[in-house]
Write a structure and sequence with these properties.
By secondary structure, this protein is mainly alpha-helical. Helices cover 78% and strands 4% of the residues. The chain has one domain. It has helices at residues 2-36, 42-67, 98-126, 128-140, 149-162, 167-180, 187-214, 216-262; strands at residues 71-76, 88-92. Strands 1-2 form a two-stranded antiparallel ribbon. The longest helix is centred in the C-terminal third of the chain and has 47 residues, at 216-262. It is globular. The relative contact order is 0.18.
């Protein structure tokens, strides 16, 4: 039973926190490379994309602040500043309140979660075949057998790239790039998320221990929910990464064509 609880806990963490931080890091690397490829125009491009992406980023923080009972003391959805800060949300909370402390994690990682959800909603409208493939993969995810996950992911993204023959795909790519370019978490976002992470993991482990003691089947079902939801999130975090990589390719082409001329 101890081994089952430990395995369930690891799977739950990997398919939630692990995915969020891994893909958040990979997407941030892509985004930095995207702007760097524009050279001296990088800041201007950041401002242009930030008109759309930054308000979404900050509103996602604000949404989870409200959800977890934090008081928003100051908020700027978009601004042009010398220090490069395009927006911010300042908030306060009761440090003795466990729920509000746990909320720090969700508030910190909110842009990744919300923008992934927005990509899902946008794809539901523009790329229904892709969404059908994602939903089929998520519904077939099995906590006991994960070897088919990556093969399934390959099929899902084959469906995505096949859709490039349609104009809807290009609209999705353009809007998705504006959003994914501003999924990147700031240092303050990460520090805020870490303050709630320890409590979140403790509560999750406690839940697993209780479920494991009461019902092994209940623990497996609980973990299955995480795996299914995590598989769906994996698809859309991967999608955001693919969109970011395509953006890097576009910016690299710009650098190749115009950077050489300036040189």
């Amino acid at each position: 039973m101890v081994a089952q609880i430990a395995l369930s806990f690891v799977l739950q963490v990997v398919f939630t926190v692990g995915l969020i931080f891994l893909f958040g890091w990979l997407i941030s690397l892509c985004n930095r490379r995207f702007y760097a490829n524009f050279g001296k125009f990088g800041r201007a491009v950041c401002y242009i994309t930030g008109i759309v992406g930054t308000p979404v980023h900050e509103l996602s923080h604000a949404f989870f602040c409200v959800l977890f009972g934090h008081r928003i003391t100051e908020m700027r959805l978009f601004r042009i500043s010398d220090d490069g800060t395009l927006g911010y949300v300042n908030h306060s909370y009761d440090r003795k309140n466990l729920y509000q402390q746990t909320g720090n994690f969700f508030i910190g990682v909110a842009p990744i979660v919300v923008i992934s959800a927005l990509l899902y909603g946008l794809a539901c409208w523009l790329l229904p075949d892709f969404i059908a493939a994602v939903n089929a993969l998520a519904s077939s995810a099995d906590v006991e057998s994960m070897e088919g996950l990556f093969a399934g992911m390959g099929d899902v993204f084959f469906t995505f790239f096949v859709s490039a023959a349609q104009w809807q795909w290009w609209v999705f790519l353009a809007v998705g790039l504006l959003l994914s370019l501003h999924m990147t978490l700031s240092g303050a976002d990460i520090r805020n998320a870490l303050t709630g992470l320890v409590i979140l993991l403790f509560l999750l482990l406690l839940t697993d221990i209780v479920l494991g003691a009461v019902s092994a089947a209940g623990l497996q079902t609980f973990t299955g929910w995480f795996v299914s939801a995590g598989t769906c999130m994996l698809c859309f975090l991967s999608l955001a990464l693919v969109v970011s990589l395509l953006g890097v390719g576009f910016s690299a082409l710009f650098r190749f064509l115009f950077g050489r001329k300036r040189a």
